[in-house]
Amino acid sequence: MIESSAGVLSLPDPLSQTRIIVPVRNGGIRWHEGAHALRTALPDPSLVAVVDSRSTDGSDRVAIECGFALERIDPSAFNHGATRQWAIDRFCAGRTFAIFLTHDAVLEEPDGLRTLLSSFSDPSVGAAYGRQVPHHGAGPFEAHMALFNYGSASETRSLADASRLGIKTAYLSNSFAAYRLEALRACGGFPSHLILGEDTCVAVRMLLAGWKISYCAQAQVRHSHGYTIAQEIRRYFDFGVMHTQLPELMQNFGAAEGEGARFVFSELRYCAVNAPMALPLCPVRNAAKYIGYRLGREFARLPRGLCRRLSMTKVFWDGAAPARSRTRPR
User: Residues 108, 222: contact at Cβ < 8 Å?
Assistant: First the structure.
């Protein structure tokens, strides 16, 4: 704490204790928009560290023009968890918090970073994430996905909520998430063995260790994806792989299918009101997701070449054979 000229004690700006980390790969117009929103929000642009996977569209130049710290890595070395942990080790010495954004997430308000960090006023909160609202012009399926996953009410969840919320208890998204570094390190950091879901893995570990996860609906970014049916199959294949690799998720928080059924009925209601012409596509898209997910759950039985073709995260299959499960922190 410091003393102001009026003699009143106040806390230092939490952003001064924070590093913002953004992995980038050919971010295009979304990254251009997101980078400038970040620059507007920050008194010191060097608080942002960009990890660029050799972009060919000038994304690295955008980072330099904004005054952000920049590190380039080989795209073949990118791993959702390992790259983020490397960034923590590289950029966060002496920091208390780290915020992660994806290159296609755009801050809605300049105060959004500080609003998200306010979640840590509760010393039991180990990680917090903000609300994701659809990009302007989003189609009905991507708009509903954002609205379904990110409600208007904030909440703080602990392991005690698992019986009420199930798998949603461990929900956390690195598209816009903040971590208390003490808690992150105590839980083993980000895993390197998962295809994706490094944020979910950390949430599980934190909850099991007694930390809480905070959802801060007042801190908002625009972030959504208009996936084709083929992309949805690949995306949910990867989710299935991750759930198989992370058995402690469903052992402690329940199966994903229950939340999936709730999503299907919610999507039907949303489209009936907002996009009735899209209703015939709902069962097709959701069947594709389920098929992709179930194939992903059985990835260990499938030829590796087929797994790569079915996956959205193709680089994952190019390295050592992926682990089926690992229950101990690395």
Answer: yes
Instruction: Find, among 244, 175, 170, the residue nearest to 205 by Cα.
Output: 170
**Model's pTM, two decimal places?**
0.92
Phi-psi region of 159 (alpha: psi -120 to 50; beta: other; left: phi over 0): alpha
Cα-flanking dihedrals φ and ψ of residue 68, to 5°? -80, 150
Q: What's the burial of 166, exposed, middle or buried (CB within 10 Å: 0-12/13-18/19+)?
A: middle
Pairing, β 2-3 against β 97-101: unpaired
| Architecture in CATH of 14-226 | Alpha-Beta Complex (3.90)
- Residue 292 is encoded by which pair of tokens? 């992709």
The rounded mean pLDDT for the chain is: 93
pLDDT grade, residue 67 (50/70/90)? Answer: very high
Contact 214, 165 (CB under 8 A): no
- Tell me the Ramachandran region of residue 58: left when phi exceeds 0, alpha when psi lies from -120 to 50, beta otherwise: left
Q: How far is CA 278 from the centre of its chain?
A: 27
The residue extents of the domains of the chain are 14-226, 230-317
Place of tokens 């299907």: 264
